Amino acid sequence: MIRISGLAFRAGDFRVEVASLAVESSEYFVLLGPNGSGKTLLLSCLCGLARAERGTVIVGGRDVTGLEPRLRQIGYVPQDYGLFPHLDVARNLTFALRARGVRHKEALSRLGPLIDMLGLRGLLAHWPLTLSGGERQKVAVARALAIEPALLLLDEPVSALDGPTRAEVLEQLHRVQRQLALTTIHVCHSLDEAAAVADRAGVMIGGRLVQAGRLEDLIARPEGPEVARLLRVGRGNVE
Predict the structure, then answer these.
(1) pLDDT number for residue 231
(2) Helix, strand, coil share (%) of the chain residues, nearest 5
(3) What stretch of H or E contains 110?
(4) pLDDT digits (tens, 9 = 90+) for 205-233
(5) Residues facing 10 on adjacent strands
(6) How many CA atoms are closer than 13 Å to the CA of 156, on its beta-carbon side?
(7) CA distances to 79, 135, 196 from 163, in Å
(8) Which CA distances in Å does 35 have to 42, 60, 206?
């Protein structure tokens, strides 16, 4: 689980504030919002790449607000996947474990079930730049899961994929999340994408989390015209 309370930080002139958010254990939570609303910045703060000015972030009952990224037990998949082009798939997957002193062969053995779950066995000797978009996404997810995180953060995980591949990767993300019972926060700006995976969702507007709940409740009772427009709801449902 993750608990955010009174969180605030600044990136240049842009300020992000989340008064309160709770994502329960094993929940798939989708964070919606238009471009520039602060969704990616919030993920950066949660995983420690941006520092909070105030507030707390609790992950699995542990206060991680002031910890370095490597100590937070959070898996993060950025929009560009973040794969190392000079390492083959196998070494990308084992990178975090090797950084902790585990030898490559042992790390690869430990990751065997995850490799098979995501269908990556035939890609281990390949280089990232030779992979399709869907394959890169699966490698990036597997690498994030290699550390057995308490929380998985996905930033626009299918935005660069074509329609059929997007649907396939979303289905796989949802299946893997369910199999691992992994608390997940998934950032996107597509209502259809959210509907494919979300247990609950939240909406960010202008750096603030303005509403959270079940997706059907957000659609039925949006808090204001900006949320209504984002969720494709007519003005008559807002008033």
Answers:
(1) 87
(2) 40, 25, 35
(3) helix 104-110
(4) 999 999 999 999 999 999 989 999 888 75
(5) 15
(6) 18
(7) 17, 15, 13
(8) 13, 30, 10
**What is the DSSP secondary structure assignment for residue 187, as one 8-state letter?**
E
Per the CB < 8 A criterion, the answer to whether 124 and 89 are in contact is yes
State pLDDT tens for residues 165-191. 889 999 999 999 999 999 999 999 899
The answer for residues whose C-beta is within 8 angstroms of residue 109's C-beta and 6 or more apart is none
Q: How far apart are CA 105 and CA 101, in angstroms?
A: 12
Closest of 181, 87, 96 to residue 142, by C-alpha: 96
pLDDT band at 164 (very low <50, low <70, confident <90, very high): confident
Residue 89 CB neighbours (<10 A): 25
Q: How far apart are CA 198 and CA 155, in angstroms?
A: 14
Residue count (the chain): 239
* Count of beta carbons in the 10 Å neighbourhood of residue 143: 25
Q: Are 41 and 47 in contact (CB under 8 A)?
A: no
pTM of this prediction exceeds 0.85: yes
What 8-state DSSP symbol labels residue 238?
A: T
pLDDT at 230: 87
- Classify residue 189 as exposed, middle or buried by CB count within 10 Å of its CB (0-12, 13-18, 19+): middle
Tokens matching residue 57: 């972030």
Task: Return the structure tokens found at 21.
Answer: 């958010």
Provide the 3-class DSSP secondary structure of residue 107.
helix
Handedness of CA 81, 85, 88, 91 (dihedral sign): negative
Residue owning tokens 């990751």: 111
